[in-house]
Write a structure and sequence with these properties.
about 0% helix, seven-stranded parallel β-sheet, single chain, mainly beta, about 210 residues
């Protein structure tokens, strides 16, 4: 006997192929959208004054490791996320492989985050992305003019295989250490392009650890 049961997932009944477009989500306590399904599109939506914003994550199980389904082949495009702040511990935009450690594989296979605007006073940061293989981060803008400290990291990427980062605009009214923080990832620095600050900022464009 065991306190942790064996869990079997039917990946064919995991709501593949979602499409959420032109919707407005307001005043949610936490995530207005929490997606675990593959082949999904989230486009032209608005997230206003929510405790968190958009999230794509694998299933969180009771075992020591998390399993599928994984939100592979997802697109997050042309969305607007706005609010005064987030619930503590949450991010306006989050893609996460639960319980992963540095050096683990990246099981979320394929994720495009393009042309999104985030304006939320979250002192932790605007995006957190973890465990993605073939990550494309293109032409996004993050703004925080109300709740910035020297420890705030606008965009954090960990344990990913990064294909392209091209176009990131950071509008923070105080100095931060870097616009983009990359930890434990496979990434070619030649594929990091066009990171810009709206206000004068002594931050580095990116740091890679």
């Amino acid at each position: 006997t065991t306190a942790t049961p064996t869990i079997i997932y039917n990946m064919d009944s995991g709501s593949r192929g979602n499409s959420v477009r032109n919707c407005t989500f307001m005043n949610s306590r936490r995530y207005p959208i929490l997606n675990r399904a593959a082949n999904s599109l989230f486009e032209d939506n608005k997230f206003i004054d929510c405790g968190a914003g958009f999230a794509a994550m694998n299933e969180l199980t009771t075992s020591t490791k998390s399993e599928g389904g994984f939100p592979c082949s997802n697109t997050m495009r042309n969305n607007i996320i706005k609010g005064e702040s987030n619930t503590k511990g949450y991010y306006p935009l989050e893609v996460r492989h639960w319980k992963s450690a540095l050096g683990d594989s990246a099981p979320i296979d394929g994720f495009l985050i393009e042309n999104n605007e985030i304006e939320v006073g979250n002192k932790d940061g605007s995006m957190f992305i973890n465990g993605v293989k073939d990550l494309y981060l293109i032409n996004n803008k993050v703004t925080n003019t109300t709740n910035v400290t020297s420890k705030t990291m606008p965009v954090i990427i960990t344990n990913c295989d990064v294909s392209v980062i091209d176009g990131l605009t950071v509008n923070f009214n105080k100095d931060v250490s870097a616009a983009l923080t990359v930890v434990g990832c496979r990434i070619d620095e030649n594929n990091i392009k066009n990171i810009n600050f709206v206000h004068p900022n002594r931050a580095k464009k990116y740091v890679i650890d």
